[in-house]
Design goal:
alpha/beta; Rossmann fold; 2 domains; 13 helices; elongated
Length: 279
């Protein structure tokens, strides 16, 4: 559920007068009921006047009470199931731009609704404590592993993106206590990734899997970041089906930076001395 309007009410509450605060408190605790109320009903329940309701709505940027209720309803309506708009050869370039952006936005919204913050926190803590991190993926997920390697190294972590079956198997077999394998897999059913997880655990290493819940790989993981797979994943690999794994990488980077005590955990330039020369 998106809660941007309710968060805005709570944020601005301290700037409101006593009467408007009563409106804010009532709306925050009874949002579903307010959706069905007239202005007079809300005024009575919050013990304020109609003009106070109007000031409250305008403070939040709405023209009036009906405009406010419409946006409140949009806040409370659950996100629609993820829908992928297939791009075809008949699409104009305008449609290509629109569908690509819409698919990406839908994927991000789905991630916001599905991801479990405590799983991100646990994975970030385990990565921050690891003596070495092997980052495993296959196919188009290779790109995600390189992204993670680059960002983790900028945090000062010892890590490497391991690409190719032979190289992955060699490192997995040599895993030791204190080491962590971070494995990316959309389906969680890729045999190669499951075998890597088993080998790492056999050597005493820990496995963090960014994958589908209740998948074979998830069942081997010591720490799971569950990312719900998309329907027809193999068909939709170009962008939307991989986007949320990149978002998870950024979340892990921030979680690690927080655990390391960074004042600016979401700003990589503030975490290291890597600076590019500008013209």
């Amino acid at each position: 559920m998106s809660s941007s309007l309710l968060k805005s009410i709570l944020t601005k509450r301290s700037d409101m007068g006593a009467a408007e605060q009563r409106v804010a408190d009532y709306v925050s605790t009874h949002p579903e009921q307010v959706m069905q109320m007239s202005m007079a009903e809300l005024s009575g329940n919050a013990s304020v006047s109609d003009p106070t309701i109007m000031r409250f709505c305008r403070r939040l940027g709405y023209e009036g009470y009906q405009d406010f209720k419409l946006n409140l309803a949009q806040t409370l309506v659950p996100s629609a199931p993820f829908e992928y708009e297939q791009i075809t050869a008949r699409d104009s370039i305008e449609n290509v731009v629109r569908k690509t952006c819409r698919n990406s936005l839908n994927a991000i919204q789905r991630a916001q609704d599905d991801l479990v913050p405590s799983q991100i926190a646990a994975a970030g803590t385990a990565l921050a404590k690891a003596s070495w991190i092997g980052i495993y993926a296959t196919g188009i997920s290779d790109i995600t592993s390189f992204d993670a390697e680059h960002k983790f190294q900028r945090l000062g972590l010892r890590c490497a993106a391991l690409i190719g079956r032979k190289k992955q198997w060699m490192h997995a077999e040599q895993a030791r206590p204190g080491e962590v394998a971070l494995i990316f897999s959309q389906s969680g059913a890729t045999k190669q990734m499951v075998e890597v997880a088993i080998a790492v655990k056999a050597g005493g290493g820990k496995v963090i899997a960014v994958t589908a819940a209740d998948s074979p790989l998830a069942r081997q993981a010591d720490s799971l970041v569950a990312v719900r797979p998309y329907d027809q994943t193999e068909v939709m690999t170009p962008l939307a089906s991989r986007l949320n794994h990149h978002l998870v990488v950024n979340m892990l980077v921030t979680a690690i930076a927080v655990s390391k005590g960074s004042e600016f955990p979401d700003q990589l330039p503030a975490l290291d001395s890597w600076q590019t020369e500008k013209i």
